[in-house]
């Protein structure tokens, strides 16, 4: 475990909790004490490793007795999941962010590995080279949200 950083260790712990209960419900300050880190480190792990783009829903309740609940989403059973993913893509997305989203779709069997290659060819930095990184990120987000909207309707037909 010497080659693992603290974020990896915290992530592994949360994944272990989810394996046992299908979700992890934690208090941020308690988890920070457990691993001797500042609470912002816990926020970093949750925001970077347990995002909607990676197939998780994170809910939080603030205040005394507040908690953070992390749950892996079963996409085909969660009608609103793609809507949340579309919202998370937002107005701009980087090539690496788009890559995460598209590979999640493949992992959840919404697109094939071949389709991932085709989609990523259209969303990569070279294909969207319009002379301005910000404009490319905006265009990439529009294209990705269009794809997600189309998939949302395909999923709705299955139910």
TrEMBL record:
Keywords linked to the UniProt accession: DNA-binding, Repressor, Transcription, Transcription regulation
InterPro entries referenced in this protein's UniProt entry, alphabetically: CtsR, CtsR_C, CtsR_C_sf, CtsR_N, CtsR_N_sf
GO biological process assignments: regulation of DNA-templated transcription
Gene Ontology MF terms in the entry: DNA binding
Keyword Membrane: no
Residue ranges of domain CtsR C-terminal dimerization in the record: 79-149
Domain CtsR N-terminal HTH: 5-73
Coiled coil: none
Family designation: Belongs to the CtsR family.
Protein name per UniProt: Transcriptional regulator CtsR
Organism: Weissella diestrammenae
Taxonomic lineage from the root: Bacteria, Bacillati, Bacillota, Bacilli, Lactobacillales
């Amino acid at each position: 475990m010497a080659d693992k950083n603290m974020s990896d260790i915290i992530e592994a712990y949360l994944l272990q909790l989810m394996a046992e209960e299908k979700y992890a419900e934690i208090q941020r300050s308690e988890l920070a004490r457990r691993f001797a880190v500042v609470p912002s480190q816990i926020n970093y792990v949750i925001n970077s490793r347990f995002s909607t783009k990676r197939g998780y829903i994170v809910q939080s309740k603030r205040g005394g007795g507040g908690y953070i609940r992390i749950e892996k989403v079963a996409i085909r059973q969660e009608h609103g999941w793609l809507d949340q993913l579309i919202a998370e893509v937002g107005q701009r997305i980087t090539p690496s962010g788009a890559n995460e989203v598209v590979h999640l779709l493949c992992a959840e069997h919404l697109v094939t590995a071949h389709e991932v290659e085709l989609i990523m060819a259209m969303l990569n930095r070279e294909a969207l080279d319009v002379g301005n990184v910000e404009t490319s990120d905006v265009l990439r987000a529009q294209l990705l949200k269009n794809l997600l909207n189309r998939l949302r309707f395909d999923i709705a037909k299955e139910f």
